[in-house]
């Protein structure tokens, strides 16, 4: 669905809502407990005092065939909800839109606004990455704030972001992204209890903020969360620092992967990436993108992700390659200048990032095996069957092609496939796939390299072949020393697959 509805403001007034005090209007949709927690957070945020002499920011907004209502809502909310002296300008970068109202009518409209709005046009469809680079190049503020074209800034959104950059110019900051429904335009407060991560396929994902990060902040939820990755649409960065760390990878097309690339680069090259919990910006989450991907979405994202993996992930790129058959056939172009950048900035290895910034990563820092798990008696392999969280893990004829038959037995003794871990919560099973929780418990497995058994520690039972009742799933039974309870953990190497 394309966002083109002109009743956004109206919708907000109709709903029962409560002002949480940080500019966030929480709707009745939030469960009461969340509301209280959010309310407390907002009340505490309101008492914060920020320095007067914060840096100025240019707000760079790229759009392509955006609806008038959502684009102007973004612009007006920046103007109305930011201290005037902190906004240098708004830069609207048109990535070759075709809609007429985005041409002359837009230019004459923004001329009347009380903040300078600079509309610049890409000569041809260039994609988010190159359009943002163009916007950044013409901007003049000390800080660049990138926003999507369908956002709503809330009261007090900007000061906490700029304060962090003033404190340390190598800190890159994201607001909490509140959710604006693309069906009803209802506004729902985003959570401060999730942060950015990624899975083996290099998809950005939200995961719970781990206990170590709560502890580091001594339970103070108004302090910024150090996040391993950013969602990408909304962030602020010191203008010179953006240049120093190498802006974006201009070899990437359209969009996809650039948010992880800049996240890895910030952390590995000496910066800090934070979610500032006292800053809220709403964003319309669209079900489909209006962007067209010349050559196909998959091809472009695979190319971008390959560049990301090849430049920043060292040997851990194998997790991406093994779970994504075919991706290594995608041409990713020349990365020598990005490797040169990594060298010049003396960036740390990916293992350092996993160890220090993202120890709860879905990619394990240490592991015993990455490959198939094969039953000795039946010669069948564990297979996630592309099933989802909470479903049973499957078993199928081994195909040796990676993908759904890739599992990692980690140093923490989990059996993982992507961000799911094999989990048993009842005697005699079933063996299900749940989000890895890193707390051992029902996800703890002991592999005996001599007996070749995979023993589930809590139940004290052994992983076994499929039963006659259900030939598609492995079973779990009392350990009996039979060959059907023996498993080979093979390290699949890339040349075997590709
Ligand atoms: Mn968006």
TrEMBL record:
Pfam families: Glycos_transf_2 (PF00535), Ricin_B_lectin (PF00652)
Annotated GO MF terms: carbohydrate binding; manganese ion binding; polypeptide N-acetylgalactosaminyltransferase activity
Reaction(s) this enzyme catalyzes, per UniProt: L-seryl-[protein] + UDP-N-acetyl-alpha-D-galactosamine = a 3-O-[N-acetyl-alpha-D-galactosaminyl]-L-seryl-[protein] + UDP + H(+)
One GO term of the biological process aspect: protein O-linked glycosylation via N-acetyl-galactosamine
Keywords in alphabetical order: Disulfide bond, Glycoprotein, Glycosyltransferase, Golgi apparatus, Lectin, Manganese, Membrane, Metal-binding, Secreted, Signal, Signal-anchor, Transferase, Transmembrane, Transmembrane helix
Cofactor requirements of the protein: Mn(2+)
Record has Transmembrane helix as a keyword: yes
Topology relative to the membrane: Single-pass type II membrane protein
UniProt KW Disulfide bond keyword: yes
UniProt cross-references to PANTHER family, sorted A to Z: N-ACETYLGALACTOSAMINYLTRANSFERASE, POLYPEPTIDE N-ACETYLGALACTOSAMINYLTRANSFERASE 1
Name of the featured protein: Polypeptide N-acetylgalactosaminyltransferase
Organism: Propithecus coquereli
């Amino acid at each position: 669905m394309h966002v083109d509805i002109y009743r956004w403001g109206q919708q907000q007034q109709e709903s029962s809502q409560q002002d949480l005090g940080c500019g966030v209007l929480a709707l009745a949709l939030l469960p009461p407990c969340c509301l209280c927690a959010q309310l407390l957070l907002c009340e505490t945020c309101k008492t914060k005092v920020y320095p007067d002499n914060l840096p100025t920011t240019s707000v760079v907004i790229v759009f392509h065939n955006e609806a008038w209502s959502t684009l102007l809502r973004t612009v007006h909310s920046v103007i109305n909800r930011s201290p005037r002296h902190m906004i240098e300008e708004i830069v609207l970068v048109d990535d070759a839109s075709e809609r007429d109202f985005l041409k002359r009518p837009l230019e004459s409209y923004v001329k009347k606004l009380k903040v300078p709005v600079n509309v610049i046009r890409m000569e041809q469809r260039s994609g988010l990455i190159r359009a943002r680079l163009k916007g950044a190049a013409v901007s003049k503020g000390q800080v660049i704030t990138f926003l999507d074209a369908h956002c709503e800034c809330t009261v007090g959104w900007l000061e906490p972001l700029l304060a962090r950059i003033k404190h340390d110019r190598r800190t890159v900051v994201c607001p909490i992204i509140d959710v604006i429904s693309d069906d009803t335009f209802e506004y729902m407060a985003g959570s401060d209890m999730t942060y950015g991560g990624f899975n083996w396929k290099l998809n950005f994902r939200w995961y719970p903020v781990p206990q170590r990060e709560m502890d580091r902040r001594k339970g103070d939820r108004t302090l910024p969360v150090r996040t391993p990755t950013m969602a990408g649409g909304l962030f602020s960065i010191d203008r010179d620092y953006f240049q120093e760390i190498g802006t974006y990878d201009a070899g990437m097309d359209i969009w996809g992967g650039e948010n992880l690339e800049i996240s890895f680069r910030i952390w590995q090259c000496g910066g800090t990436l934070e979610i500032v919990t006292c800053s809220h910006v709403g964003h319309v989450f669209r079900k489909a993108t209006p962007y067209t991907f010349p050559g196909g979405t998959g091809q472009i994202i695979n190319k971008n992700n390959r560049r990301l993996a090849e430049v920043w992930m060292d040997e851990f790129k194998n997790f991406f390659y093994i779970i994504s058959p075919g991706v290594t056939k995608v041409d990713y172009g020349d990365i020598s200048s990005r490797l040169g950048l990594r060298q010049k900035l003396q960036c740390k290895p990916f293992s350092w990032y996993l160890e220090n910034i993202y120890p709860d990563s879905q990619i394990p820092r240490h592991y015993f095996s990455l490959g198939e798990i094969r039953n000795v008696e039946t010669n069948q392999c564990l297979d996630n069957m592309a099933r989802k969280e909470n479903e049973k893990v499957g078993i199928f004829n081994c195909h040796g092609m990676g993908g759904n038959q890739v599992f990692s037995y980690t140093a923490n003794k989990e059996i993982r496939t992507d961000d799911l871990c094999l989990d048993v919560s009842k005697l005699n099973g079933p063996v299900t796939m749940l989000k890895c929780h890193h707390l051992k418990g029902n996800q703890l497995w002991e592999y005996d390299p001599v007996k070749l058994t995979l023993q589930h520690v809590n139940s004290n039972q052994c992983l076994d072949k499929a039963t006659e009742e259900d030939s598609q799933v492995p079973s779990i039974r009392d350990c009996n020393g039979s060959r059907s309870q023996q498993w080979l953990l093979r390290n699949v190497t890339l040349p075997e697959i590709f």
